[in-house]
Amino acid sequence: MPAATPGTPSLLRAMNDRAALELLLTHGPLSRTRIGHLTGLSKPTASQLLARLEAVGLVVATGTDAGRPGPSAQLYAINPRAAHVGGLDVTPERVLAAVADITGTVVATHEVPYTEGAEAVTQVTEALGGAIEAAGLHRTDLRRVVIGTPGAFDPQTGRLRYASHLPGWHSPTLLEELAAALPMPVEYENDVNLAAVAEQRLGAARGHEDFVLLWNEEGLGAALVLGGRLHRGWTGGAGEVGFLPVPGRPLVRQVTRANSGGYQELAGVEGLPRLAAELGVEPADAPGAPGAAGAAGAPGAPHGPEVAAAVALLARAAAAPEGAHLQFLQSYATALATGLASVVAVLDPEIVVLSGAAISAGGEPLRALLEAELAELAPSRPRLVPGEVRERPVLHGALESALAATRDEVFDTSG
């Protein structure tokens, strides 16, 4: 069939179809009258549109709006089985996979813990295969998969950079091996960038075109969104702020070999237990201490032991921000602001989204202290807002990224 040209009825129909599908995604089930009102289409045209979309399997009738005044009306919704996508969140501890339907509903997850010597391809196929099986699907049912990892795959070489701590992911042929093992298109993205995608589409950054997401978990990083788009840099390394030289720490040379830099050593999670001890804060895993780390690092734990210990310390301090606890939060806020000030001075973002377990655990007390410190160190004063996607933000970002591209394909009725 020849491609539609501007102004042709087929193109206008496709535009109306897409507008209706987006409304159904946003609002849920709607009647033909409501769709006509929201799109500006007449009721007969809205009826034809819904019949067309139902015939191609993109919408389904879901019942009626019985209970409202007047005659009940048939409701229509996106057909959740129109397409499925996959997302993976890879850390040094585990590979977590999920499958979502076209509406964004997560229908299954599966986690594979890291095993010494395990190959990346094996981990990915096992985790994704488990999620697909749990969803009652076949591998060929997935339209696209997005994999989030620390660091980034260099678009010039195809090799993973900035993540020497991720075992088994540095083979020069890894991308070719994954492409051969998986039947669907696969895309790769930095984990912090995916957390920013999740906040942009689902959370605190909705409606914002220029923002920075500051992240602290296993590593300290940032995602840069400029003009509504992720800025990745020439080698994919934009936002690797842990490598920044900062006051208060000696210069780290050979940073890629060390997999660290001044900002990481100043404000990364590995230094927080030491800082707490210097200030007289009781260790979080002391007997009877609230917020004890407990089984940090055990199978199924969401983070490694360093992150879990830091999170426990920060949560306890934020719950009672006075005395040594307040000093601990203030020192951490100063450390975070020291590197963040450079980012703000260069980019002048509208907001900074605070994310990652080791920042989120500090809650409002840490956010307020960090905002005050940043006001002293940076020439502009962006609002600092807590991330709203607290559960598995990287995984949700991977799914949202896969869904955006898949909806563009599936919802295009012009062909």
Characterization of the model:
- There is one protein chain.
- With 415 residues, this protein is α/β, with parallel strands linked by helices.
- It contains 14 helices and 15 strands.
- The strands form four sheets. The protein has a five-stranded mixed beta sheet, with helices on both faces. Strands 13-12-11-14-15 form a five-stranded mixed beta sheet, with helices on both faces.
- The chain is globular and about 70 Å long.
- About 4% of the residues have low confidence.
> Helicity range of the residues?
40-55%
The average pLDDT value, as a whole number, equals: 91
CA radius of gyration? 24 Å
Series of H and E elements? HEHHEEEEEHEEEHEHEEEHHHHHEHHEH
Q: What is the approximate shape?
A: globular
Give a quick summary of the entry.
Helices cover 40% and strands 19% of the residues. It is of the alpha/beta class.
